[in-house]
UniProtKB/TrEMBL annotation:
InterPro entries: Ribosomal_L18, Ribosomal_uL18_bac-type, Ribosomal_uL18_bac/plant/anim
UniProt xrefs under NCBIfam families: L18_bact
GO molecular function, a single term: 5S rRNA binding
Keywords: Ribonucleoprotein, Ribosomal protein, RNA-binding, rRNA-binding
Transmembrane segments: none
Subunit structure as annotated in this protein's UniProt entry: Part of the 50S ribosomal subunit; part of the 5S rRNA/L5/L18/L25 subcomplex. Contacts the 5S and 23S rRNAs.
Gene source species: Sulfitobacter alexandrii
Protein name: Large ribosomal subunit protein uL18
Coiled-coil residue spans: none
Entry keyword annotation includes RNA-binding: yes
Record Gene3D superfamilies: 3.30.420.100
GO cellular component, one term: cytosolic large ribosomal subunit
């Protein structure tokens, strides 16, 4: 029986997350979720099980910029880097989930790096 698109996404997400947990123990996780309209990111402390900082295009000041979602993702990446620095976090590992490192996800990661967050 063929896997559905959702089942394949979940398998890919778990594969990425498990690999990152083995390789980057002890660092914070920068977890990305995107939909067709919005993108959100959280800085998570897996040891304590708490979210340290978050940013999303659902926030008023970070909303969509025209029809170009890559610009909005760039703003979200810069914002999460700024909020992470305020929280005292210098480095994290980038958890793209089941999403391809391409387009909005890549723009967010690059903006977070430019903002001073070491990914």
């Amino acid at each position: 029986m063929a896997n559905t698109k959702r089942q394949l996404f979940i398998k890919r997400r778990l594969r990425v997350r498990n690999k990152l947990r083995r390789v980057n123990a002890g660092r914070m996780r920068l977890s990305v979720h995107r939909s067709s309209k919005n993108i959100s990111v959280q800085l998570i402390d897996d040891v304590a099980g708490k979210t340290i900082a978050s940013a999303s295009t659902l926030e008023k000041d970070l909303g969509m910029v025209g029809k170009n979602n890559i610009e909005a993702a760039t703003k979200v990446g810069a914002t999460i880097a700024e909020r992470a620095k305020k929280a005292g976090v210098e480095e994290a590992y980038f958890d793209r989930g089941g999403f391809l490192y391409h387009g909005k996800v890549k723009a967010l990661a690059d903006a977070a790096r430019e903002g001073g967050l070491k990914l």
